[in-house]
Every structure is written in C-alpha cells, then in structure tokens.
Design brief:
136 residues, alpha+beta, eight-stranded mixed beta sheet, 8 strands, globular
Length: 136
C-alpha cells in the first residue's frame, strides 16, 4: 500500500511524524480519512480522535480542534491542543463535561447555546471513545 508523510503538531511539541498508510480525522463537516493519492485539502478540525494507521499498528491522538492540510504528498495536522490517547486526562475531561453541562442551564436559547451543546457532544464523544469497554 502506498504511504505518505504525516506530522501531528501541537503548540507544545511534535507528537508524531512518520510515513503512514491512512489517517482518520475529525473534521468540522464530519469525519474523513486520508490515503496516499487523496486530493489536496485544507480542513478545520473539531474536538475528536485522530487515528493514524501504519501496516497493523493504529495510534490514536485526542485533538481539541485545529487544522489539517494535505498537499497531495504530506499531511500536516496543526492541533490547538493534542495528546496521545494514552496520556489524555480522562478525569479532567469528565470534570470539564460536568462544568459544561451545568453551564448549559445558564445559557439563553440561541447560537451560543447551540455551540455549547455541540462542543459538549464532541467532548462526550471523545470520552466514549477512550473509556475501555468491559467484555461480558
């Protein structure tokens, strides 16, 4: 399978750089995947999970927004905030979700409330993706 170069950068550090087979991204217009040969694209990212696949290895990163640019040969992900899924603080996320839920009661109906609900949904989605499930 053809590969392409990916760099995932947060303001603090370079989190990942390597040749990969596929990257799945949380775009503001919906999730999308990038493979070698994908058309050039620039996309805004919403809070969510970036999955990077190489051969049989899949690495996951939590991003809280940013931009992704694919030039046709290289994908650069400029995250507002990013961490590996293993290092992401689920307790802090849970506390943030609780604060956001409490804040919704104080919002008036309108665009601000809609944005707050959407952001809360994204954070809950991250939480659901990272909490291990128990097999029965």
């Amino acid at each position: 399978m053809p590969t392409f170069q990916v760099s995932l950068v947060s303001p603090e550090k370079l989190l990942f750089t390597d040749q990969v087979d596929q990257v799945d991204l949380p775009g503001t217009e919906g999730d999308f995947g990038v493979l070698a040969g994908h058309a050039p694209i620039i996309a805004a990212l919403r809070p969510g999970i970036v999955t990077i696949a190489t051969a049989n290895i899949r690495e996951r990163f939590v991003v809280l927004g940013g931009l992704a640019e694919f030039s046709g040969e290289e994908l650069t992900i400029l995250a507002d905030n990013a961490e590996t899924a293993e290092d992401f603080d689920l307790d802090a996320l849970k506390s943030r979700i609780e604060e956001m839920q409490e804040g919704l009661a104080k919002q008036t109906i309108g665009d601000e409330l809609d944005r707050a609900i959407t952001l809360l949904d994204h954070y809950k989605s991250i939480q659901a993706s990272l909490i291990p499930t128990t097999a029965f």
